[in-house]
Input
Amino acid sequence: MKRNKQEHQIDLKSWFFKFKSKWYLFAICALLAVAAGYVYVKTSPRIFQFQSTLLLGDQQTGSKKAQELLEVLDVQSRGIKVEDEIGLLQSADMIKQALQKLDFTVAYYKVTDHWLNNISDMVVEEQYETAPYEVELDTSRMQLVDVPIKVRPLDKNTFELTVEAENVPRYDFKSNAVVGSVPKLSFKKTLNYGEPYQDENMSLTINRADVEDTPGKEYYFVINSLESLIKQQQGSLEIAPIDREARVLVLKSKGSIPDKQVAFLNTLMAEYVANDLKEKNENGLKTLEFIDSQLAGITDSLRQSKQALSSFRSNNRIANINVQSNINYEKLSQLEMERARLNTDKTYYENILDQIKNGNGIAQSVSPTVGGIQSPILNNLFLQLAELNQKKAGYRTTATEDNPMLRKIESEITNTRHAIEANLQNLIESADISIANVNERIGKIEGTLARLPENERKLMDLQSQTEFIDKKYDFLLEKRAEAAITLATNATDKKIVDKASMVGTTPVNVKPKMIYLLALLIGLAIPAGFIVLMSNVDSTIQGKEDLSKITNVPFLGVVAHGSKSDKLAVMNNQRSAIAESFRSLRINLQYLMADSGFRVIGVTSSISGEGKTFCSVNLSSELAMSGKRVVLIESDMRKPTFSKYFPVAESVGLSSFLMQGLPLEEVVQKTNLDNLDIIPCGPIPQNALHLLEMPKMQELLSLLKEKYDYVVIDTPPIGYVSEYFVLMRHMDVNLYVVKHKYTNKDMLTQINELYNAKRVKNIYMIINDLNYNKTYEYSYKKKAKYYYA
Output
């Protein structure tokens, strides 16, 4: 096939013509699209955007002055990760806490008076504290959730309650869980305001509000489950830092009721800040409880030791102690204090180890900042465990248990806990070794003191014991005071910077001008795309330019579209567009044959139905009307069609001449048009191909050439039978007929091969049945229609 260099260039004028010819599709689609846009604008709830800001501190607890005063541990301040805090804010648990502080369980709606609501309840407005009624739920009983319950006021005292739904969930507010469902529910009841209604599916009371209503107007409400509210708010909540390195978070939310969304954002931030302070206070209280438990036992011991020392002095009348004894007892006292300190540290380590082994994390254990742990490694491990727990909380808001990152964090937490346990065990073993060493030294001093007078030794024992308990008591009192100061000065490091407010004054989802413009563009794009698609998949001949892209066969002309019933268009209406088309063909053909003496014209096509016979009959008529003697031969003896054009005698014809040898005068039949004779096919033979191959065919054409100016042969289509290839050698000019929007481009492959191989001579293309109104190439001829009758 021929490939034009400009085959892939876009002919804008041609496409514009195709679009223009289908203007009604554009009008209908544009109208429907704009109507759909109008319905969308009117039925879509107006969604507004809201914004607030929250500041994250540096995770310090208490006032700066208290921090400087205490310095219980010499460790670095624990920082926070913004991503973890965002995860906590967006977690279902945090949103649940905020929603439980708000009254969003019942959502109220009003069906407006828009004309679209005559079709269905399409235009609906949500109400918040403006509904003419208020629903009071009995949360101790089952309720129907996530289904519209219609309320239609009848008068000031009564209303109509209607429910029509399928598969309605039944919700238990005590456990916040769905308990079964109702397959089909349909009821309509008339109730009084303030009258409780109760059945097996719901229990509520509808009270009249101080808002004017219209009797007969429709309202409805929906009881929301806590899970659906959480999902709804999670879906609309967006949190991000104001800058990459900033600690200021911007909270954004979307909703149709400004008051509801503002209340939600403010409550969410307030709950987040309150939870932070609550967690810090809980850690401080646990520290105080631990110290108080230690003080309770030490107080009794101190009282008993002082009482025993006083009684011993009184009974034995002892006032002074030998200097040497004092030195020994002083050393003994110091060692006893050292042993007590080691025992206290060991007890503290064992306490922390026990909590760690029992599954309590750092947030539930005694705060190491007051316990006196002097191991930097252990302190860093505790901080690392706290950060991992915080990161885990952040990931669990959006990730499942199978998330690889969550599993990795779980593994790190387990490894860190094992490291803490190992360090604590090492500290305990180290304390045991130190205690054993101190006990050995105490034993030596006690052996020395044993050689002192018994009374002095007992006195020194009592004094040493009293001093030790007294110092331990003072130490615990000091630590308790420090913990109390820390608890009293606890302050959250989170701060609400800007309370929630609406961003702008226009909805973010419904912009009428943009929606109408988009709808119009879609309405125009759909038919345009359809036309382009149909044009690309249409493999039929569309016009001269289309024909020139697929074949090198010269083009002769076109035959205009006309009525199918007018077979002899040239004779019946000489001022028609079809008659003018054949005139042009006749002139072009005579111009080509002027100097060559061509007299035999063959007309063929690819397949049946392309107008081959129609063209040969009307071209012959046009030649005859121009004053030429013409004979038209019907060589298609398999499917004769001349009887549709002329009143012919089917008993004689071409087959009679070839088989029976009838004289030429008997097979040639006259027509109503002067100068035009025809030779029909005659009786249908057994083998038409063999007849056409006989020398009699050449003899026939020789006789006809002597008598007529032109011999026109209507041949069979080359796509079905082989007769054309037999007749082709007798023809001076070959006319190949293709039909507009009918002939497939692939059907021209055979004639292209013949032409390129130079097996056929003087062949020309004719486009038949071309509608000037449906092709850009000949659209100009529409303007000449007043020249035709």
Summary: The chain has four domains: 12-44+510-537, 51-270, 279-496, 544-787. The first strand starts at residue 48 and ends at 55.
